[in-house]
Amino acid sequence: MIQISKKSGLTGMLLLFFIMAYAQKDQPIVVNADKIKSEIQPTMWGIFFEDINFAGDGGLYAELVKNRSFEFYKPKMGWLLKSKAVDSSQFNILSCGDAHKANPRFARIKGGLSADPVCLSNGGFRGMGIRKDNQYLFSIMASVQDGGNITLRIELVSSKGIVIGGATIKPEGKEWKKYTASVKAGETDPKASLNIWFEGKGVVDIDMVSLFPGDTWKNRPNGLRADLVQLLVDMKPGFLRFPGGCIVEGHDLSNRYQWKNTIGDPENRPLIMSRWNIEFKHRLTPDYFQSFGLGFYEYFLLAEDIGATPLPILNCGMACQFNTGELVPLEDLNPYIQDALDLIEFANGTTDTGWGKVRSELGHPAPFNLKFLGIGNEQWGAQYFERYARFEKTILAKYPDIKLVSGTGPAPDGDLFDLAVKELTKYNAAVVDEHYYRDPAWFFNNAARYDSYDRSRKYGIFAGEYAAQSVATCSPDNKNDWNCALSEAAFMTGLERNADIVHMCSYAPLFAHAEGWQWTPDLIWFDNLRSYGTLNYYVQQLFSTNRGTHLLEMVREGKPLTGQNGLYATAALDKSTHEIILKLVNSTGKPQMQHIVLQSAKKMMPKAKLISLSSDRLDRVNSFNLQENLKPVEQEISLKGKKMTVTLPPYSLSVYRIKQR
Ligand code: AHR
């Protein structure tokens, strides 16, 4: 026993502290391979998709033409009248009003009135990403007024003004028809544009001018950008939450997300302004609209493609409380609840049900196997609970197996959070969403957040939106640096250690266009042709692809590792492969030697796998310079028996996969 005299004072205390810290450090970490603490849900690590930062239009949705239907608030936005000597009266916007409520506007081009033909140019979303030798599918709706004789000459034009591909289309007749042409690109250019020359005489009306790359994900028409979907596939996500985020709520209720407006022929999906268009004064994005070309049918298909459980979130009769907070009176809430019931039928109903038939006619007779449904995004206060209650009552009466998701609002603590926790225990949500946009220190310090959560509560936890903020929430200067990613890794060991109550987790937001973003940090960055995973992405990927099926006890001196000596750790078992999976985070700038005992494990295979991600610089970030990016490194290690001595590099996340015979 060490005795400290009063005289030795502070120095003695410090000495004792260091001796104790070092003594503890030398104690082995014990993993009890036969002590299964809980199941780890297949939905544990998922993804959160929201059309923010050009994630949908201008991003994942592969359409290259901006304002293809002339329905932006300023209907000519995105379109440039290029030809010299052409009068602006030769390019007008008309509306057919109620005759086509979802898409009333079209453009009228008058050809042959000047020396030059009319040329309309579209510059895409901060340029069009065009790749050499790729095919591009151009399409247009056109109606030729009587006596018109116009040929459309389509050109792909490089940023240097060189034509790099072309085709012609000859529209005929007054009836609106869709015309298509395939264009092969001769050059690669991230900032190309599309020209349409109207050659000849007469009047032609046009609408739904579209250009898609031929190599969309699974080569689907109206498809998604393949490189971005691949990054999602590589995460092996357990669920896909869509379509948000605040976009569900809308700036006001007219601006909310309505799933029924997002299915069927894209031409009939009424466009609205994206709420992110005007959200941040420092990042105004006047050309940000939602075409809904990527709509609920496409989201369900995407979830299926990437092997993720779909998790749609619906508006609960409340607009964003950071904006108007507009409310639907309780007595008028039924159509909103009906939307939820219809969505369940759309996803799961047999083909002889009304909405099941719609799904089938869209091309998917088999159900989408919807299990979860979110009611409201980031709502708070009494108005939320009373609305949530009505949804729950009706939905669970008809669909008792649907797992409802409710939420605690924007912050992980404070009065609103406490109130939500108290109120939501009265209901039957299967999981409750908590959001944390906090600094890295918060994430390091909260790795034990759920260790002391009340186990008697009925619902599981959905860590539905989280990301460490290097500067402050909503600051445009936030970085996806290693300090943030490492703090998230430390926190995530705590999520996993509490897998008995934490059932779903997702980083937010998912995507950002390098020139079209509003919010940082983000998991995946892209421009018109390229994309990369941030360090945060690789942390998410390491947890998700090394999930394990069951949680094991992992302790040092009987206590979980929640930051003592800067060390965070968790252990899992993968019952299907018989592997023990260890995740260890060293948050210090020094290497740490650790002794690990795999107690009660079966006989070990002599070789194990170590996958690690580390950087000696906490300000390290990934970028479009892919060769220089930091990614997990995999190596084989040798094992002798059930005791391991490992050295964890400074600032590192290490994942060990140890196979038992
Ligand atoms: O992820 C960005 C935004 O943060 C989400 O839209 C919202 O739910 C939260 O406030």
Describe this structure in words.
With 661 residues, the protein is α/β, with parallel strands linked by helices. The protein has three domains: 25-40 and 550-660, Sandwich (Immunoglobulin-like); 47-62 and 217-544, TIM Barrel (Alpha-Beta Barrel); 79-213, Jelly Rolls (Sandwich), CATH 2.60.120. Helices cover 18% and strands 31% of the residues. Strands 3, 4, 5, 6, 7, 8, 9, 10, 11 and 12 form a ten-stranded antiparallel sheet that branches. Strands 30-29-32-27-26-25-1-28-31 form a nine-stranded mixed sheet, covered by helices on one side. A hairpin with a 4-residue loop joins β23 and β24. α9 packs parallel to α10 (535-545). It is globular. Bound molecules: alpha-L-arabinofuranose. Alpha-L-arabinofuranose is lined by residues 50, 52, 244-246, 377-378, 410, 465, 508-509, 519.
